[in-house]
Amino acid sequence: MIPTSDLQIIYAAFGILLAANVLAMGLFVLFAKLRDGRLKESIRSIIFELDRFADSMENKDKQRFAIQQISDILRWRKFMIPEALIGWAIDTEVAVIRKMQKAANTPNIHGEDNING
User: Fold this and answer.
1) 47-75 as b/e: b if 16+ CB within 10 A
2) Which of 18, 50, 52, 80 to pair with 96, CA 20 to 30 A apart?
3) Has this prediction a pTM greater than 0.85?
């Protein structure tokens, strides 16, 4: 059985990821709906960072390094999570970011399909 404190950490991590995804989707929708201006440019910079994260984590070497770093931090805090689960969470986040880009019809800023990016 998982101790209560570990369950609380798992619930908190899940809640943080869910909240971050809801916020990100809101930003993608706002970006798609707003006219050009300061707010849209601010949102573009956030989307740029999300896109850069997704691009980076699609590189398996960079993803492996990130998994190792996260695993090391968690081990230091005496919290063991299988690296496969961390990798799954990263892959899921990349997929969610890509789906949000597609759903909101926002460009892959770093992609080849964006000439201005």
Assistant:
1) beebbeebbebeeeeebeebbeebbeeee
2) 80
3) no
